Amino acid sequence: MNVKQERFVNAYLMDGNATRAAREAGYSERSAHTQGNRMLKNDEVLNAIAERTDALQQESLMTAESKRDTLWRIAQFNAQVIADDEGQLKMRNPRAATAAISELNKMDGDYRKNEGPITQVNFIQDFGGGDD
């Protein structure tokens, strides 16, 4: 790949716009649209874009996996039951454990908006004292 192609790939990966990437690579304002389209038909350029996109996705996947692992360890540690100074058993930090699990649920998409119908439930409590 030549220098302009390399610059094009780098710029294209930033925002996905071929015309702007062509301008960043050094093509004139007048020819940027045409050159950007031409670049996206070049096999070397397409392969470079695909390789770098895959690398970026793997990098972000590893970051997500490490975040998930850290949050899980935080949840486990803070959910451990220990004895306090008076011998009473309690969780280390229930709020921290709950917060870590909540973040894990968000990362996994468990807090998606419910698109289905909402079922209303009415609770009636009988406190006694009435003649049944």
Question: Care to give the gist of this entry?
Answer:
By secondary structure, the protein is mainly α. It is built from five helices and two strands; from the N terminus they run ααααββα.
Descriptive account of the structure:
With 132 residues, the chain is mainly α. The chain has helices spanning 3-15, 18-25, 32-39, 43-79, 94-107; strands at residues 81-83, 89-91. It has a two-stranded antiparallel ribbon with strand order 1-2.
Question: Any key phrases for this structure?
Answer:
about 130 residues, about 5% strand, elongated
Strand and helix map with partners:
Layout: H1 3-15, H2 18-25, H3 32-39, H4 43-79, E1 81-83, E2 89-91, H5 94-107
Antiparallel strand pairs: 1-2
Count, helices: 5
The strand line-up of the biggest sheet is 1-2
Got a strand count?
A: 2
Task: Give the helix proportion (percent range).
Answer: 55-70%
Mean pLDDT score = 87
* Rg, Cα atoms, Å: 28 Å
Helix-strand sequence: HHHHEEH
User: In oligomeric terms, what are we looking at?
Assistant: single chain
How does the helix and strand content classify structurally? Answer: mainly alpha
For the report, how would you describe the main beta sheet? 2 strands, antiparallel
> Strand percentage, roughly?
under 5%
Coarse shape: elongated
Distance between the termini: 88 Å
Low-confidence stretches: none
